């Protein structure tokens, strides 16, 4: 039955008897019929949209520079989605403001699945830190996780320490002499350092960067002293002995750095990890979200992607949209007290 036939059948079925009561009943029947027809029509249209999606190339926004922990997995997923969907999925780096430029770009576009976002821990946390974030967590529609990772405490070779305890001691003695890099107020590096500062007494000056890759370059060059960084950025320079790694932030040691102890092993009660996922804009049809979810999960399960993530010290993992939503909600719940405690709000 066509949509036109559906509408006609409901109009023709209306009881046209006269009288106040009959007219009232007739109006109710007509209203119910129109609502039912509308639901059938719109659900059918959404189904057609999912069947014909995509209609043109897809933009995959990444809120950080090339070469970082959001960019490398994002590009791998884009390549696989291009093959699965039969249209180019073009990655577009929009670094700045802790990833907010990319997120704001996402929600400014039609919610039709043709603009997607590599969403990260930053997206929910920015709404806690910035008073003018210009979006809400509810503006983002989760599709699937694509990975998780712990952090490592990386130190420049120029810093004369080999242990975390030695770093803590020398920074306490000369608090103005040492600095650490982070990629925005409320970033994991910033929050982890603040908690380290509270628990151990470590003292350093913060130096902000636009992304992980430029911060790591400065660490290798010895122009910053400490960078709490995703393994994806640290494994290669660590293996090449360009930097030192004093600890990791996970529950267990990293397979890529088995010789490096966790903070908990070193007596610091602190565990931290981050996530990377694919998100769409709020209002994207559920059928399109479902289609994308299936394809992203296939991409994450591909042996090539698993090998890539293993070499980068990350964990390849996919999820349902609801599971990614729970991860985002947990990030808000866990981070809000830290932002308040250290007064990390910004305009």
Topology, element by element:
Blueprint: H1 3-12, H2 20-52, E1 58-62, H3 71-85, E2 89-93, H4 100-108, E3 115-120, H5 122-129, E4 140-150, E5 152-156, H6 164-173, E6 179-182, H7 188-200, E7 205-208, H8 212-221, E8 226-229, H9 231-239, E9 243-248, E10 273-281, H10 286-301, H11 303-311, H12 321-341
Q: Would you kindly provide a written description of the structure presented here, covering whatever features stand out?
A:
By secondary structure, the protein is α/β, with parallel strands linked by helices. The chain folds into three domains: 3-52; 58-149 and 275-341, Bordetella uptake gene, domain 1 (D-Maltodextrin-Binding Protein, domain 2), CATH 3.40.190.150; 152-248, Periplasmic binding protein-like II (D-Maltodextrin-Binding Protein, domain 2, 3-Layer(aba) Sandwich). The protein has twelve helices and ten strands. It has helices spanning 3-12, 20-52, 71-85, 100-108, 122-129, 164-173, 188-200, 212-221, 231-239, 286-301, 303-311, 321-341, and strands spanning 58-62, 89-93, 115-120, 140-150, 152-156, 179-182, 205-208, 226-229, 243-248, 273-281. The strands form two sheets. It has a five-stranded mixed β-sheet, with helices on both faces. The longest helix has 33 residues, at 20-52. The termini are far apart.
